[in-house]
Model the fold of this input.
Amino acid sequence: MKLQLAKLKPVSQRVDFDLGEISEFYDNLKAGLGKHIKKSLSEAIEFKNSIDEFQNRLLGERKKVIIAQVEKIDNELESLDNQYKKGLSVINQNGSLKNLKQTYAAFKDKSDQLSELRSFVLRYDELTADRQHYRVRKEQELLRLQSLLQEHRRVIESLEKTVLMIHEYVQGTRQASLQIKQVNRVQVVEITMRIADDGSHSVEREKTFIYDLALLIDEHTRKNHPGFLIHDNIFDVDQDTLQRNLNFLANKANFNGSQYILTLNADRIDFRTMPTLDSYVRARFTKQNRFLKRKYQEVKKAQ
Done:
């Protein structure tokens, strides 16, 4: 739907006279009026033409304004016409929806999305509340754990003294430490043990030996210990350190009925320097006299 406006041409009304008649009329008028008429006929016609030109310029400017307004109205009408056609496309000639099923399906889909979103928001609120609840419970349990660590401070100090005693016997120094504390991390309780020159593979295995043995023989920790410990070829130290470890096991450690099993390669032991050690040997296995009386080999699983 478009508004049409006819283009208007500026019109100046003119009356055509015969120049001879005008000249005669003007001369008579000039003769009658005398000095009151000072302008010539040509000047009067020039003045009239100037007025006509000014009027034409005003009409031209007004024409431009009207054309711009018409173009703006045309654009608005075109936009409204497009909206009307879009709305009319879903309505048939009888004024009913053309595809009610499709419209209802679209509404149902949006309704389901809204329902799912509402359920998601409700579940989020529930989980947020649960998270806060468990966070409070965690803090309470951490406080309780901290209190238990304080209550069993004597046990921790006793275990540390046992570690220092073993370390001094084997390494000849008390430069070792054991710390057990509660931390706000995944492991909750952090056990930190340091011995002289730790960090290397062999010293870390020595650290494991000292810690495990301390738990077995300490007077406080052995009450809750299963009383059974196995070290399979754990020593990867020099010969002097190995001999001091074995001397401690044979002469210093008090197992008090607990059972400790240690496996070693026989070529690392000199029974001549440790004659008492032979009395602790319970089994010897060789390639001919195999453990479990059969040949076996570890099979590594493919990653």
Q: What stands out?
A: The first strand starts at residue 177 and ends at 182.
